[in-house]
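Q: My labmate handed me this sequence with no annotations at all. I'd like to see what the chain might look like in three dimensions before we decide whether it's worth expressing. Could you predict it?
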Amino acid sequence: MRVALVHDWLTGMRGGEKVLEAVAEAYPQADIFTLVHVKGSVSPLIESRRIRTSFIQRLPAAGRLYRHYLPLFPMAVEQFDLREHDLVISISHCAAKAVIHAPGARHLCYCLTPMRYAWDQFDEYFGAARTGRAGAAFYRPVMSWLARWDAATSSRADRFVAISDYVAARIARYYARRADVVYPPVDTAFFCPDGSAPGESALVVSALVPYKRIDLAIEACARAGVPLRVIGDGPELPRLRRLAGPGVTFSGWISGEEIRAAYRQSGVVLLPGVEDFGIVPLEAQACGRPVVAVAEGGALETVVDGVTGALVPGKSQEAWAGAIRGTLDARLPAGAIRLHALRFGRERFIQEIRAEVDRVLASA
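A: Here is what I predict for the chain of 364 residues:
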């Protein structure tokens, strides 16, 4: 059986890429298709595979400016040649789920989320406050068209699997499709405590894009008098640097070993934006560190309030500052925090995703 794994883009080892890595481990002979691949940006396991890219790869500065080519993504993903593949597994948060497969082939979509910016987060990405009046006026019809295309192509997947109950509800709302839930994998063997005592600082590990609300983390830590380290990169970096005071350091993207060390050295890890699932909170908990997260979205499924951290309703700087300080002072037991994270391990994910593949093949 020929298997194709389709991912939106490969430009760094974030949550979606870690899912791809685990699926690639489960299907070692699979070919990988992606719109853009920045060589060396993902794990050795992924890099060792045959990776086929779209025409976006050949456009100017595609590795850095790929988001600017968003209106071309539908055309690009539909040009992938999957005629030789019997099974397609798309890992999609943008366009990957719209690939066209051969007649008789089966397509399982592991959906990270329907397009946020096209459906319900336009203002956070393309509103006048972000792009100016002219920019917002340009992008609004483009995103409306993308939303219609996104809904119309949802039938190309034979079966949807969501990363959380929160995303399953979004799939039902925007695609009118049912989705089972398989939580993404956490490498609990790699992310583990080293016996060190927690520090008195806060940590954010995130792509620096608007909906992640890193600005709230910066402002809350300033109010709480807690140093903050931000690991990650993205279009929000210049604005966040202007907002940050002397207690904030920016590290860019660093190696997995360095991220693990940062978890272990921190006193609390922050998730201020509404996430569809959020792999960072579980990596932090696997290292025995508590998480302060917004009480919405996937965090409700990954953080246990008062046991593995704190869930904060709303976006009040005062409430966030109090939760950060309170969590640092509580010194929650690292063993109980890690025990919770072990429920989301990598082997569990591989077993469950193989079972979902068996279901979609049997349904043929």
